[in-house]
Automatic annotation (TrEMBL):
GO terms for cellular component: cytosol; ribosome. This is Stringent starvation protein B homolog. SUPFAM superfamilies: SspB-like (SSF101738). The gene is sspB. GO terms for biological process: positive regulation of protein catabolic process. InterPro entries: SspB, SspB-like_sf. It comes from Candidatus Methylopumilus turicensis. It holds the Pfam family SspB.
Length: 139
């Protein structure tokens, strides 16, 4: 019997879509590790909360291995890369509804080589039109 793929990336995408469909602001809670690429100045206690609204991101792209997008922090554009294994939760800022996950240290080591594969897939992504890019840090 073959192994099934994880349901986690599908749940993340579904909650993101639910937030957008209901005019809510999707936020991602991420445990920062060596494979996670985020602006370290905004990391608190090893975690960062990111606004995943289409108006706050550019080239938002989901795969079963990672989430990637560009966002502005203090006016500077940053390319972010979040392995799915580092995602602790996705929720609506307005009401806190969403889904949270356990992050296991052994899961964080699985994605060491997914960077290259993910970058190749991102090149094929067709970006949607973005009016203004902003990112708000939620504490």
């Amino acid at each position: 019997m073959s192994e099934f793929t994880s349901t986690k990336p599908y749940m993340i995408m579904a909650i993101h879509e639910w937030c957008v469909d209901n005019q809510l602001t999707p936020h991602l809670l991420v445990e920062v590790n060596a494979q996670t690429r985020v602006p370290m100045a905004y990391v608190k206690d090893g975690e960062i909360v990111l606004n995943l609204n289409h108006s706050a991101t550019k080239d938002l792209y989901f795969t079963n291995e990672a989430i990637s997008f560009s966002a502005r922090f203090s006016g500077a554009s940053n390319n972010l890369y979040i392995p799915i294994s580092a995602v602790k939760g996705i929720f609506a800022r307005e009401n806190g509804q969403g889904m949270f996950f356990e992050v296991h240290p052994e899961d964080l080591n699985e994605n060491k080589n997914n960077d290259i594969e993910f970058s190749d897939k991102k090149e094929k992504n067709i970006s949607s039109e973005v009016k203004k890019t902003t990112l708000k840090l939620v504490k």
